[in-house]
UniProtKB/TrEMBL annotation:
Residues 3-141 form the Ketopantoate reductase N-terminal domain. The keyword Oxidoreductase applies. Pathway: Cofactor biosynthesis; (R)-pantothenate biosynthesis; (R)-pantoate from 3-methyl-2-oxobutanoate: step 2/2. This is 2-dehydropantoate 2-reductase. It comes from the Bacteria. Its EC number is 1.1.1.169. The keyword Membrane does not apply. Keywords: NADP, Oxidoreductase, Pantothenate biosynthesis. It catalyses: (R)-pantoate + NADP(+) = 2-dehydropantoate + NADPH + H(+).
Amino acid sequence: MNIVVLGPGAIGSLWAYSLHQAGHTVALYSKQEHDKLPLQLDGNTPITLANNQPVSLQNADVLLVTVKAPQVIPALEVLRSDLHPDCIVVLMHNGMGTAEIVASRLPNNPLVLATTTHGALRQSRHQVLHTGQGSTQLGGYNSKGNQCDFLQQVFAHALPDVYWNENILDALWLKLAINCAINPLTAIHQVKNGQLADEAFKPTLHQLLDEVHQVMTCEGLTLSRNELNTHVYNVIQATAENRSSMHQDICHHRLSEIDFITGYLIQKAHDHQLDVPSNEALYQQIKRIEKSWTS
Ligand SMILES: NC(=O)c1ccc[n+]([C@@H]2O[C@H](COP(=O)([O-])OP(=O)(O)OC[C@H]3O[C@@H](n4cnc5c(N)ncnc54)[C@H](OP(=O)(O)O)[C@@H]3O)[C@@H](O)[C@H]2O)c1
């Protein structure tokens, strides 16, 4: 297949390299101005891929979007006119809220959503490390996207394990819930994920998850409050030594994905006339930190 990866950072480069190795014609769209870019995964042989070539987009069967959530809409806007209406658009990022906008701006394209637990780290602009083996879930967002379950095989052949999830929004909501609990707290307190298991964080986590669970229930999810607790504490334990992406973003004075994580939760809570004061407080704290860099 002809596959374009928009945003070849850590996760995008991991997929671009793996899809190329699986035999696909892979091209990149990045913020770099060169026609071609070298790319190396771990210690493997470097490859060279086309970059920012409109012809790659015009011929693309799949556009894999791996920019961070705040960049999805502006990045897609620039290349919208070159995108064929049959091209399958796959959004792979943390957080929620972009799919609604993409679906309205690209109403004819099949839209597929993805979430991955692989770990990737950019060592330099052209070198990426696969730091953690994980799995990926894909699922259709619109009716044309629902017909793209063959992508499971395409992606699984490149970087297993991959599952097609008929209820991808449920998977994204669960990931959002986990992110709402872990990301702002670890970023504000500058702690590794595992430290959230300390007694001191228990009351705050409890309140956050009560609020998140209420919103999820109103959104039609059937997960129980206890199950949500178990998922969150399992992730805290399994990733105890990790620094969350928001913790890293705040450390490096990079804009975080808070608007698409806690911000999305707050927006949905308002839709259902629910109050989520603990989540609002963390949202405001992250926003204040981000604002302090520019003032
Ligand atoms: N890394 C992981 O292990 C991991 C695991 C699971 C999920 N995720 C999620 O995956 C998403 C991507 O994360 P990441 O770690 O890969 O981030 P990243 O390394 O920052 O990659 C994002 C890439 O998008 C590029 N970009 C930004 N705006 C663009 C535009 N308008 N056009 C083209 N390219 C653009 C960035 O370029 P510049 O660097 O030049 O700005 C960067 O190369 C996030 O939502 C993250 O939470 C990451």
